[in-house]
From TrEMBL:
Keywords: Calcium, FAD, Flavoprotein, NAD, Oxidoreductase, Transit peptide. Residues 423-458, 464-499 form the EF-hand domain. Belongs to the NADH dehydrogenase family. It is a peripheral membrane protein. This is EF-hand domain-containing protein. It is found in: Mitochondrion inner membrane.
Amino acid sequence: MFSGVRARLPAIYQLSRTYASAAAKKKSKIAKYTLVGVASGSALGAAYHLSKDDEVINSAVGAHLTVPEQAFKPKLGGYKNLPVVSHFLDDSVHEENTKPRLVVIGSGWGAVSVLEQLEKDDYNVTLISENNYFLFTPLLPSATVGTLEMRSLLEPIRKITDRMKAHFLQVTAKDVDFDSKLVEVTDPATGKDFYVPYDKLVIAVGATSMTHGVEGLENTFQLKTIQDAIKIRRQVLENLEVAALPTTPPEERKRLLSFVVCGGGPTGVEFAAELFDTLNEDLVRWFPKVLREDVSVTIIQSRDHILNTFDTSISDYAEKKFDREKIKIVTNARVKKIDEHSVHYTVKNAGDPSNPETQQLPYGFCLWSTGISMTPFARNISEKLEAQKHQRALVTDGTLKLKGIPDGSVYAIGDCATIENPKMLSHIMDICEAADKNKDGSLTFDEFVEAGQYMCRRFPLATTHLSKMSDLFKKYDVDNSGTLEIDELRVLLTDLDKKTTNLPATAQVANQQGKYLGKSISRIAKASRQGVSEDQVVQPFAYHHLGSLAYLGNTAVGEFSWGYKMVGGLWALYLWRSVYWSEQVSLRTRLNLSIDWTKGAIWGRDLSAI
């Protein structure tokens, strides 16, 4: 048997060599084709980009010849006789623009959402902002410690305005002349003022942090802008580096590594969680391990619980998790003063609530994150209009029109605004008069439905509570008479007033308001061309709460509109990331986020100070 095999060996050897030679030739051919493909693809790609560059260069040659003369030499006008910028450097003499002028002030969630919903042919759009980018604010805490790169949260605003063929001016909004419909702005480079005319104006300037009259806030950090995130990152890393020096005294080291967060809302809690993750994972890896013994993170909250706007079960979970991780939470506390190295606050005395205890906490870093207040521009607008009585925001009606502007040409959205929320009970006679068709002093079910429609138009914040009219009618028709008497209606309105609250100042609200307003003013433009009344095409704004999320350190919590509550777990972290990933305004930022999270998982956070 073996002799037969031995006899066939030369033939087998020759056959294998033939196959090997053929395979080698095939590999060589594949490699050759691959090389040719890569080379030709690269050449074609380079040629394409070079040709595109040539097109761009050629289109720019002589561009000044098509720009209207008024773009270079604006006419003077307005109350202060300033230049009125009615034409722009990207306008063309070949295009006669008769569209109404829409000016949007701001580049945040509300402003960008308005632009995304507009029809290109409806308005001549100009966006005014101090920043030439859109900032994805929900992920700012992640950028403060190097989990995400700063650039991953930014989208150039000119890329967004280009989709709408809108103009962009990087200037500071200073004032509005409502009579002449002129926005006064300041060139930050020269300090010179000029006007931008409008037919419709959208104010979406955001908000600043509330001071609560606390002394010494200049010693703290805030987290509203990308500049804030950069300052925080630099300070945290500087504290770590100084603490790592052998010459730093033990008490000073302990103070430097004491991180205090004033405010137990989502921003404060998420920053504390991100900071703790960094100190717990990266500090012990790259810094002397002895530093970890002196690290402390403290949250000072004025309410009974942190994340008090969430369900109680979520607040309890967050507090227990932080307690396990040695993040100290001080509740029922009021910050009174913040000096250069200490936070002074009072805590309710369990034995004597009327006599709070005063305590002092040394710190090396302090974040102030306690509510919002009006920006200087918004406050200036509020003080000019007699109808504006709110202390913290501009007041609008149900269609987001600014109160106090007779022609309804000005809107306010986002954190700088709040929808008027009058008590429905005080308007009970108006509601009855609008719906009681037979004037018998009671409402049948059909009349009650009509009353509900009237209330939704007049009191849009109550819309959510008026969605199930049949159930409401049955609940408050106590005597089962088939009608609602005036006393029964009074009880109903009293209960609705208790449930109806102002909308929170969140990115979700600003986003929905922007989308609503963009669609509304596009409908108004079309209706105007067709001679149709504005009231026929615009319905009051209705907010649909989709849910709330918060990062708690390698996990997340959340509650959703359909009633589901997400309480911890690794999957919750990835759901939290997925939601914010899907909300990005461009493919570029989505890709950047994916890369940052991958880099962090492999190599840890970037601890370089910038």
